[in-house]
Design goal:
The protein has 12 helices and 10 strands. It is an alpha/beta fold and about 325 residues long. The protein folds into 3 domains: about 100 residues, Arc Repressor Mutant, subunit A (Orthogonal Bundle), CATH 1.10.10; about 90 residues, 3-Layer(aba) Sandwich (D-Maltodextrin-Binding Protein, domain 2); about 110 residues, 3-Layer(aba) Sandwich (D-Maltodextrin-Binding Protein, domain 2). It has a 6-stranded mixed sheet, sandwiched between helices. Keywords: DNA-binding, Transcription, Transcription regulation. It comes from Paracoccus aminovorans.
Length: about 325
Amino acid sequence: MVPDYQSIHRIIFVRPFDFANMRRMTLEQLRIFLAVAERQHVTRAAEALNLTQSAVSAAISALESRHGVRCFDRIGRRIALTETGAAFMAEARAVLDRAETAEMVLEDLAREPRGRLRLHASQTVASYWLPPRLVALRDLHPGIELRLSVGNTAQAADAVQEGAADLGLVEGDVAHGGLSRQVVARDRLVLVMAADHPWAGLAAVPVAQLAAQGWVLREPGSGTRAAFESWLEGQGLSAADLPPALELPSNEAVLGAVAASRRLGVLSHRAVETAEAAGRIRSLPLPGAERPFSLLTDPRRHRTRAMQALIGLLAG
């Protein structure tokens, strides 16, 4: 019988390589761990990763056995994250973020801007200002894969500082001293109210009566909230003078609450244009309530060609 040299080659060379991989924590194991931890469900994690349920279970078991820990409690058909697993999540995310950054540096050796570009933008920027600029970037450089996360200003700054985002786009000042900040646009705030509010027919904001009104405001940490509180200080008022009845985490939620009540809100003029044109709300300008849209970068990190392409487009 003629020997199957290809099979012999696979036995000699492939098995030691696979055995070595079983002895080390791999990036794939970390991805699987995070997928399971975020969903607390093996089957759903397997579907999201396009893997079999047995492959996901085996990866988790290998990770736990190798390091002598238990990341999940098995409760019937359910699983629950242990304290060890919860503590490990942040480290696993950080390792994967660094690995993704390293991959992007290698991809950046190409002359044409390409590879992944991770953005984290605050809500007003992401919803009303950024989208046409991202379309323009993709038209110019189709090899760039865009990933956009949306939160408030504080969350965007945190993402850039922690390496979870390459660039941040926010609506005002940030308290992260290690980040570089570049103004790329200007915005202004307006007072918003229901179309039938008693102030709807006024030509200007009666500042002296603001403290007597009910309020619906964005949550602390948002650029809109911070800019409004700064404007109040310039009017001789403080945030404590205007305790909000509601604090809501999105522009749309504030608009909906204002339109259905006699309460006032403050948003970007960009966020209210459609609702005002439809007759749902009215707005009044807040004189001097302007703020910058800013680009955040971390000077410690490699600036890829994809990053440079978007920065050039935004600052141009």
